[in-house]
């Protein structure tokens, strides 16, 4: 990541976080008011879900600030992985919210009390669907622009809130048409919690994969091999590719098999040429391990 990209990475992270906090705080107040007036657990749960977006956006701002710190003696690969750690924190927070909604929804089944929805609930919920999906699209756009995983996690948080509001809106309309459906509010609350659990799974899966290290895709390996071939360094056997994602930059480790008769100096020259080429073409910080051609790869 060059200086310009790093500045944009930081700027867009701050911008998305601040806009999200302002918008979500306003939506929270509107949803909570509508929930209290109607006595709907689904609306109140949806309101707190929206407020949780403000917390996750605050995490985005803090993570961008910390991750932009330069490498030091204790952290030679930089602090970029704080963004991935923050994404896991958001996933955990979502899981706690989902659990509480599921528990409250199940408990409400025993009360058998209908919820009195009205036009206020419809207007507030419909407004929430539109605004939250716009925020989600904005966060996803900035994620594609910067590669900041925390922005993607925050986008999913917005998207899950928009989806939960869609479910609530459908349920409200159904409940108004069929007043005897006393169970609708509980079903809505439980459905929202299941959506949240799915968002948790998606966020955690990608984040953990990147933290543990990953093998590049077959397509990317082909691009690497093609770039190395263009150097005309002779008969090389490339294998054992691994990518270590530090957010602000990526480390690639790979093995090459050379003719065992080549000198150490020649092997070093070839490895250095490959490292410079992959840094130039893909921005990868590459470490090349050399093996004699006759040795089986491990």
Q: What are the defining features of this structure?
A:
single chain; 3 strands; three-stranded mixed sheet; Alpha-Beta Plaits; Alpha-lytic protease prodomain-like; 8 helices; mainly alpha; 69% helix; 298 residues
Describe the protein in words.
- The chain is mostly helical and 298 residues long.
- It folds into two domains: 3-212, Cation efflux protein transmembrane domain (Alpha-lytic protease prodomain-like); 218-292, Cation efflux protein, cytoplasmic domain (Alpha-Beta Plaits).
- The chain contains eight helices and three strands, in the order αααααααββαβ.
- The chain has helices at 3-38, 41-67, 82-108, 119-146, 149-177, 184-212, 218-229, 264-282, and strands spanning 237-245, 250-258, 284-292.
- Strands 1-2-3 form a three-stranded mixed β-sheet.
- Helix 3 runs parallel beside helix 5.
- The longest helix has 36 residues, at 3-38.
- The radius of gyration is 25 Å and the shape is elongated.
- The two termini are 31 Å apart.
- The relative contact order is 0.12.
- The model has no long low-confidence stretch (mean pLDDT 77).
Average of pLDDT = 77
Q: Got a strand count?
A: 3
Q: Spatial order of the strands in the main sheet?
A: 1-2-3
Q: Spans with pLDDT under 50 lasting ≥5 residues?
A: none
Q: Distance N terminus to C terminus?
A: 31 Å
| Main pleated sheet | 3 strands, mixed
**Approximate strand percentage:** 5-15%
Helix content: 55-70%
CATH topology group of the largest domain: Alpha-lytic protease prodomain-like
CATH class of the largest domain: Mainly Alpha
Structural class: mainly alpha
Q: What integer value in Å does the Rg equal?
A: 25 Å
Domain module tally: 2
Number of distinct helices = 8
Q: Can you name the CATH architecture of the largest domain?
A: Up-down Bundle
Order of helices and strands: HHHHHHHEEHE
Question: Shape, please?
Answer: elongated
CATH superfamily of the largest domain: Cation efflux protein transmembrane domain
């Amino acid at each position: 990541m060059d200086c310009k990209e790093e500045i944009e990475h930081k700027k867009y992270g701050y911008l998305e976080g601040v806009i999200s906090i302002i918008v979500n705080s306003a939506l929270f107040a509107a949803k909570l008011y509508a929930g209290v007036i109607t006595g709907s657990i689904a609306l109140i749960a949806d309101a707190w879900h929206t407020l949780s977006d403000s917390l996750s956006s605050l995490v985005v701002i803090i993570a961008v600030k910390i991750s932009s710190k330069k490498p030091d003696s204790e952290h030679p690969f930089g602090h970029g992985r704080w963004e991935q750690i923050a994404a896991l924190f958001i996933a955990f927070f979502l899981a706690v919210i989902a659990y509480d909604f599921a528990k409250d929804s199940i408990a409400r089944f025993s009360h058998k009390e209908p919820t009195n929805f009205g036009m206020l609930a419809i207007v507030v919920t419909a407004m929430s669907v539109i605004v939250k999906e716009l925020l989600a699209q904005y966060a996803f756009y900035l994620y594609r622009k910067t590669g900041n995983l925390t922005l993607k996690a925050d986008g999913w948080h917005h998207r899950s809130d928009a989806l939960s509001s869609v479910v609530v809106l459908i349920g409200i309309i159904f409940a108004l048409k069929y007043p005897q459906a006393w169970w609708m509010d509980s079903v809505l609350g439980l459905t929202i919690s299941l959506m949240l659990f799915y968002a948790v799974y998606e966020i955690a899966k990608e984040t953990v994969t990147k933290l543990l290290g990953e093998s590049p895709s077959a397509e990317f390996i082909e691009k690497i091999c093609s770039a190395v071939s263009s150097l005309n360094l002779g008969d090389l056997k490339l294998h054992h590719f691994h990518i270590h994602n530090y957010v602000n930059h990526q480390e690639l480790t790979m093995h090459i098999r050379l003719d065992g008769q080549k000198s150490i100096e020649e092997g070093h020259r070839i490895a250095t040429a490959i490292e410079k080429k992959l840094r130039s073409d893909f921005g990868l910080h590459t470490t090349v391990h050399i093996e004699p051609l006759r040795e089986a790869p491990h």
